[in-house]
Amino acid sequence: MAEIIDGKKVSTDLKLELKEKVAEYGKQGISICLAVIQVGDDKASSVYVRNKKKACEFIGIKSLSYELPESTTEEELLNLVKELNERDDVNGILVQLPLPRHIDENKVIKTINPLKDVDGFHPASVGALSIGNKGFISCTPYGIIELLKRYNVEMDGKECVVIGRSNIVGKPMSMLMLRENATVTVAHSHTKYLKEICKRADILIVAIGKPKFIDADYVKEGAVVIDVGIHRNDENKLCGDVDFDSVMPHTSAITPVPGGVGPMTIAMLMKNCVNAVEIQDIKGKTK
Ligand code: NAD
Fold first, then answer.
1. The one catalytic residue among 6, 38, 96, 241
2. For residue range 44-60, what is the model confidence (pLDDT) as tens digits?
3. Is residue 243 among the annotated active site residues?
4. Who's near 221: CB < 8 A, 6+ residues apart?
5. 3-state class (DSSP) for residue 285
6. Which of 18, 222, 246, 264 is 20 to 30 A off residue 255, Cα-Cα?
7. Measuring CA to CA, how many Å separate 252 from each of 21, 26, 182, 230, 244?
8. Residue 283 has pLDDT above 80, yes or no
């Protein structure tokens, strides 16, 4: 019988643990502050930003909110990021993506001080992850590792197939699985014999961006399946990249959509904000 990996519960547990940790830091005179910048009023981005601020409030992290108009120039945004880089009272800087077209996202990401890059998108954070140095880790793949660990899924020596090679999910996911000593294969849109490759996986992580693409034919009996995709189907219901009903009976554990990977992303952003205390060696500085 497949175990349903409950991301909602794990994210709630994690947020409660982080709340305690933040309170503990508070007693030591350490406070944590996240600056969130949104440019324009994209509806989905506004929901994400609101949820991030709510999570900060729950955990006891101060949040500063910058809601800039769509007409903001690249230079104005870069200047704000530089100003926040310099502020000792700001530990994390998050620029909500996507940005309006006239702003170069890569340039903005590269301007964030890597020591405050709580999204883990800066090239220095990505590099640190690939060579095993301390740094911020992209929240969605970081959340998947947290789920696997809390459900005691053995990764060491296991065959892991990651479908997707995006900078925010597939690539950091494969690096993290390597760090856990899995044997990792990364599949993508040019991969041949995808079914055969997926069938080898003890752990199959799907970040393909296509609703219900993966059915039972892609899954080895007893595999653990992690579904990163989020889509709305014709009936306005959420579904993932995995055809849950067909795949679930063949797995030993699987994440549902909704309620699997999704809730972990903001929880891990909060974990990154708390990790900032160590990454910035704030304790050392207050001694
Ligand atoms: P993306 O579009 O950037 O990347 C998709 C990847 O899938 C690409 O690397 C591509 O090569 C690969 N791909 C496409 N078609 C393929 C095929 N036929 N065979 C094999 N590989 C194929 O997407 P992304 O940003 O990595 O996101 C993937 C999914 O995860 C999306 O549904 C997205 O909405 C979701 N997502 C969820 C969260 C979350 O918090 N749960 C976070 C980020 C992304």
1. 96
2. 999 999 999 999 999 99
3. no
4. 250
5. helix
6. 18
7. 33, 41, 18, 22, 13
8. no
